[in-house]
Specification:
CATH superfamily of the largest domain: HUPs
Number of domains: 2
Structural class: alpha/beta
CATH architecture of the largest domain: 3-Layer(aba) Sandwich
CATH topology of the largest domain: Rossmann fold
Largest sheet: 9 strands, mixed
Number of strands: 15
Helix content: 25-40%
Length: about 400
């Protein structure tokens, strides 16, 4: 027997005349999520239905629950639009709760207004029927032991006991394309996840300093990327060596300006990668005031190195809030592994917190920026990271 999974979405339903575009993008993403498991996706009234092999129901439910735009999913049972059939299926589904006293609740959504019973009537009739079969069942509308949900569609009725929460947001691909600056830290994967939640298709760019840092820092970036691809199917990961840039900055510029100068070079490189890949924005994991390079003055000076739009999803979050996101998306434990990345090298004891653009440009004038950028771009490597 085929498994049937009901998929609900939320914010998309508020999009008015543009709603169809959002639903079409979500439909494409849902199909991609279950394409390797025999799943078929069809549109319903304010819902999607996924049908597939019963033995694949668990993995399909898991994958669907990680698609951005999805509010929740439920494995459902199907009945004809007949009250007696709905009663019989309800009794079968709650049979496992029957010898001991338990509390329960019936909750009905009637999309099909042509069905002869209203939602409250269905709740009452089903509840009374189940209590008639088993007097141990007690109605509790506030904190029931279990909830039986009923959805009255246009062709069938759907009943379910559980729902798996989804990430919500907008379907990836509906708002544009962006380049995520992916370090090995806690912040940038969280920023990438939030960017995808707002509908952005994301590619990642990781800067490394091999051989000053080990290959493990690059492997760490791949592992972080793979966690993010649990929410999409795949993600291009670009890697660029900034070893030569760091050597030159360390030799030619004041130590306290090193981080700002490096960040400006990184944004220039990100801009070039974005142009090559037809990406519209850069996503960064910076949070205002968290470190010296993330003061208002530092962010302003860094931004002036590029004409690209910079998105900072974490800008107003504190560290605990960011850690909570990282833990929720399962990147935290990878991020805290003690592998150095390029940003941890040559850290000054007292980095400047209020850099002046004229001072920064004075020292940049001493550098052959075009040559350094060209050498770094020649090290560009791209791999496609696929979900687990």
């Amino acid at each position: 027997m085929a498994a049937k999974i009901l998929v609900r979405y939320g914010e998309i339903a508020l999009k008015g005349k543009n709603r169809g575009q959002f639903e079409q993008q979500l439909l494409r993403n849902l199909k991609a999520a279950v394409s390797g498991y025999g799943g078929e996706v069809t549109r319903m009234h304010g819902r999607f239905m996924v049908k597939g092999p019963e033995e694949q129901s668990d993995i399909m439910t898991s994958r669907l629950s990680r698609v951005f735009g999805v509010v929740s999913v439920s494995l459902v049972r199907e009945a004809e639009l007949d009250l007696e059939e709905i009663k019989a299926l309800a009794a079968e589904m709650v049979g496992g709760f029957l010898p001991e006293q338990v509390t329960f609740k019936i909750e009905t959504r009637r999309a099909n207004k042509g069905f002869p019973y209203s939602s409250p009537q269905i709740n009452q009739l089903l509840g009374a029927y189940l209590q008639q079969l088993n007097p141990n069942l007690v109605v509790d509308l506030k904190q029931p032991s279990f909830k039986l949900s009923v959805e009255i569609g246009y062709g069938k009725a759907y009943l379910y006991l559980d729902r798996v929460a989804g990430p919500g947001g907008l379907p990836v691909g509906i708002t544009g394309r962006s380049l995520l600056l992916l370090s090995g830290g806690i912040d940038s994967p969280a920023a990438g996840w939030l960017a995808m939640k707002r509908g952005l298709t994301v590619e990642a760019l990781h800067f490394h300093s091999f051989p000053f840092t080990s290959r493990r820092s690059q492997e760490k970036a791949v592992d972080l990327c793979r966690k993010l691809t649990l929410y999409i199917n795949k993600m291009p990961l670009h890697m660029i060596s900034v070893t030569a840039i760091q050597k030159e900055l360390n030799a030619s510029c004041p130590e306290d300006l090193g981080v700002i100068l490096l960040r400006r070079m990184m944004y220039r490189l990100a801009e070039q990668v974005s142009y090559k890949r037809n990406l519209q924005t850069i996503v960064s994991g910076e949070s205002l005031g968290q470190v010296a390079s993330q003061t208002l003055e530092s962010i302003d000076v860094i931004d002036r190195a590029t004409k690209m739009l910079i998105l900072r999803p974490l800008i107003g979050l504190d560290k605990k809030e960011i850690i909570d996101i990282a833990a929720n998306i399962d990147t935290y434990e990878i991020s805290i592994l003690p592998y150095e990345d390029c940003c941890t090298l040559f850290l000054p004891k007292s980095p400047v917190t209020k850099p002046k653009i004229k001072v920064i440009e004075k020292y940049e004038a001493l550098l052959n920026i075009e040559s350094l950028l060209s050498e770094a771009m020649n090290s560009l490597e791209t791999t496609i990271v696929k979900g687990i």
